[in-house]
Amino acid sequence: MHIGTRTLLAVATAVAVAALAGCAGETSSDSTQQPAPGQVAPGTGTFKDIDTAARELVTREAYWQSPAVLDVEQTQRIGLAVGEGEKLTQKINAMLPDTLTTAAGPVEVGPTVKATLRGNTEDVEITPSESVNATTGSDVQMLWTWLVHPKRPTDDLLLTAYLEVPLSNGHTITHEVALSVQVRRTMSYTVWQVLTHWGTWSAVVTSLIGAVSWLLRRRKKKPGDRQQQDEAPEPSVANVAA
């Protein structure tokens, strides 16, 4: 009877130890799977929604269509195209003839994309012109054009297109595509500058002429005449009275 009691106690102890070990294992496993405070578990929440919606986008090459050089104070058209196709080529030939193609790299796009062109307002005026979307399924043919009016000559006019791509979950991703182009001086712009600043130029020229005339007059005076003027006695009081 005494032996049976010990056996029962040993079995009960073994069962209790096994149960505690199982609970500890489950607790450890759960703690490793739970994210730390302030973190989002991988593949869940907003980031998962954005990643899922972004997989619906397609990647295509973007390229600029612009003149090799812009003329100051003259309005010219430039364009940004994404993808390729017959309709896109026809539109580029019609709207942007004699333009240079400059690669802008790959971008992710969807069925709808909004493009905005920006530049330094002191250097250029930009007017939205036209957008073309001939996309059908995965056949992407997109084109945006703008009217660009440079205000002053520069070797490096920086223009940046911002592409806004809406996702199916309501979020929007943005791409920045940059273009650098030279703006050259024209004869009409130079004449305009001269006429606009004529008052300043006139004052400068007048000052230079006055300075040169003064130097020439000093050189024309003979040293003897200057000495005689210095040595001439002052009139006496008697002479003045006579």
What's the short version?
41% of the residues lie in helices and 34% in strands. The chain is an alpha+beta fold and 242 residues long.
Characteristics of this structure?
242 residues, alpha+beta, 5-stranded antiparallel β-sheet, 4-stranded mixed β-sheet, 7 helices, elongated
Low-confidence stretches: 24-43
Strand ordering within the main sheet: 4-1-3-7-6
Beta percentage is 25-35%
Order of helices and strands: HHEEEHEEEEEEHHHH
Total DSSP E strands? 9
Give the termini separation: 169 Å
Write the layout of secondary structure elements.
Elements lengths: L1 H32 L11 H10 L3 E9 L2 E3 L4 E8 L2 H10 L4 E10 L4 E6 L4 E10 L7 E10 L3 E13 L5 E13 L2 H10 L1 H23 L2 H9 L5 H5 L1
Parallel strand pairs: 2-9
Antiparallel strand pairs: 1-3, 1-4, 3-7, 5-8, 6-7, 8-9
Structure description:
- This protein is of the alpha+beta class.
- The protein has seven helices and nine strands, in the order ααβββαββββββαααα.
- The chain has a five-stranded antiparallel sheet, with helices on one face. Strands 2-9-8-5 form a four-stranded mixed sheet, with no helix packed on it.
- A hairpin with a 5-residue loop joins β8 and β9 (172-184).
- The longest helix has 32 residues, at 2-33.
- The protein starts with a helix and ends with a helix.
- The model is unreliable at 24-43 (pLDDT under 50).
